[in-house]
Write a structure and sequence with these properties.
About 35% of the residues lie in helices and about 20% in strands. With about 475 residues, it is of the alpha/beta class. It folds into three domains: about 150 residues, 3-Layer(aba) Sandwich (Alpha-D-Glucose-1,6-Bisphosphate, Chain A, domain 3), CATH 3.40.120; about 210 residues, 3-Layer(aba) Sandwich (Alpha-D-Glucose-1,6-Bisphosphate, Chain A, domain 3), CATH 3.40.120.10; about 90 residues, 2-Layer Sandwich (TATA-Binding Protein). A six-stranded mixed β-sheet has the order 1-5-4-2-3-6, with helices on both faces. A five-stranded mixed β-sheet has the order 8-7-9-10-11. Helix 1 crosses helix 4 and helix 9 packs parallel to helix 10.
């Protein structure tokens, strides 16, 4: 193994046939088996294994299952490709000590990945991941790292049999079915195809599906990430069909992207703020909210408005989930479009998030634009954007060193009021909620610059000014 296997914010990812190989998947799986047999994990001594529709995912999952079984550990292997939320829920429902999910989520077709979930349905925490990486590194140095034990039985299961009845209990399906909504659903060629449409279909609703075929090439999009640059087809279809809303899930359906009736993309920050307002205003819930450091300050303002605490964490649900559990939070979200809810599990669920947004429209009788107007009447206007800049590995250390040695005191026409280095470099720019964050992706070779201000012009000026300060060119 030439390159050490490292787990980022959402598991380990690699280029298929380059570093994401059968041998490396075996090593990762053996590392999980070592953790299970060391009695460091809670739950029943068993491992769930699932996969998406990417190249080789089923074969990689079968290799993982065989490796775990050789260690005498019971294995439950999904009998079909399935969304990450469905597999995560089955892990929690059956109290498996661990789950291995073969998916690269929103990465391009060249990639695949290895996610580790624990018995509570959420991702492994930093300590467990560090232990796993150590196990994998030690195993890679052994001549024969795999045991010659008698195989445990591999049992097959259908994740939909528990996930779908559960989801139907979490939202008012009848309200959605009777809302007379026209909805366009975009699976982005991924494993989430058919889930939202089957749950929303009724005599009174009109459902249009696009990019619903499973296609590991993800044609005509750079990657199956439900952000504006990848949703032009959804935007056009919403307009063509005179629909009220367009919903998109990423490659493994744990994220949500949204388009309004005018074909305009609604940012993930606005969507999470709406979903939190739905919990607070229309459902009457009162409990803490957890957000990543990249999430909107609208959440803080909603917390003050409704008198509920808000907790901020580093990026990644491996950091968010423990806080969500310890604080018994009702909702958690991050800027990437992943949202979790406490009656489900401490993990992102793009399918449930889409249903909750439809429920909000149904019970309020308002469209998305009207709901955003209601939101802004409580928290004010906020505009967000992000620059993704491809960088080489040797650039990262130099950029970080410059940020440390030459502290930034102003960005564009805004003075820096405070700096937070919890996860990257975050700068508070005024007392109205404006901020900018510089952070390196944990899953891709990208530098990300995030900004939120009171208007779009200020947001763009702030982003461009920061790129200029750092001496880099935005893509």
């Amino acid at each position: 193994m030439n390159v050490p296997i490292k787990f980022g914010t959402e598991g380990w990812r690699g280029i298929i046939a380059d570093d994401f190989t059968f041998d490396n998947v075996r090593l990762c799986s053996q590392g999980v088996a070592e953790l299970v047999n060391s009695n460091k994990l809670e739950g029943n001594k068993s491992v769930l294994i699932g996969y998406d529709t990417r190249f080789g995912s089923q074969s990689f999952a079968e290799v993982a299952a065989e490796t775990i079984a050789r260690n005498g550990i019971p294995v439950y292997l999904s009998n079909k490709p399935a969304p990450t939320p469905a597999l995560s829920f089955n892990t929690k429902y059956n109290n498996h000590q661990a789950a291995i999910i073969i998916t690269a989520s929103h990465n391009s077709y060249k990639w695949n990945g290895f996610k580790l979930k624990l018995a509570y349905g959420g991702p492994a925490n930093t300590k467990i991941i560090t232990d796993l990486e150590t196990q994998i590194d030690n195993l890679s140095k052994k001549e024969n790292p795999f045991p010659n034990k008698r195989n445990s039985k591999i049992e097959y299961f259908n994740p939909d049999e528990t996930y779908l009845p559960h989801i139907k209990k979490l939202v008012s399906i009848d309200s959605i079915l009777n809302a007379r909504l026209s909805i366009v659903i975009d699976a982005m060629w991924g494993v989430g195809s058919g889930y939202l449409s089957s749950l929303c279909s009724g005599n009174l609703n009109k459902i249009t599906e696009i990019r619903s075929k499973h296609d590991p090439m993800f044609p005509n999009i750079e990657q199956p990430e439900p952000v504006e640059k990848n949703l032009s087809k959804l935007q056009q279809e919403v307009i063509n069909t005179s629909s009220e809303i367009g919903l998109a899930n990423d490659g493994d359906a744990d994220r949500l992207g949204v388009v309004n009736k005018n074909g305009a993309y609604i940012s993930s920050l606005q969507i999470f703020a709406l979903l939190c307002m739905h919990q607070l205003e229309f459902l009457g819930n009162r409990a803490p909210i957890v957000k990543s450091i990249t999430m909107t300050n609208m959440i803080d303002k909603l917390g003050k408005y409704y008198n509920v605490p808000v907790f901020s964490t580093s990026v990644g649900f491996k950091n968010i989930a423990p806080i969500m559990v310890s604080k018994n939070a009702m909702a958690a979200g991050e800027e990437s479009g992943g949202y979790a809810f406490n009656n489900n599990m401490p993990e992102r669920d793009g399918i449930l998030s889409g249903l909750l947004l439809l429920e909000m429209m149904a019970v309020s009788g308002k469209n998305l634009s009207e709901l955003i107007e209601l939101l802004e009447s409580k928290v004010g206007t906020h505009h967000y954007d992000r620059l993704d800049i491809k960088i080489q590995n040797d650039q990262k250390d130099k950029l970080i060193a410059n940020l440390i040695s030459s502290p930034i005191t102003s960005i564009g026409n805004k003075k820096v009021l405070a700096r937070d280095t919890t996860d990257g470099f975050k700068y508070t720019l005024d007392n109205e909620g404006s901020w900018l964050l510089i952070r390196f992706s944990g899953t891709e070779p990208l530098l990300r610059i995030y900004a939120e201000c009171q208007n779009q012009e200020d947001t763009q000026n702030t982003l461009n000014s920061m790129a200029k300060i750092m001496g880099i060119h935005s893509n």
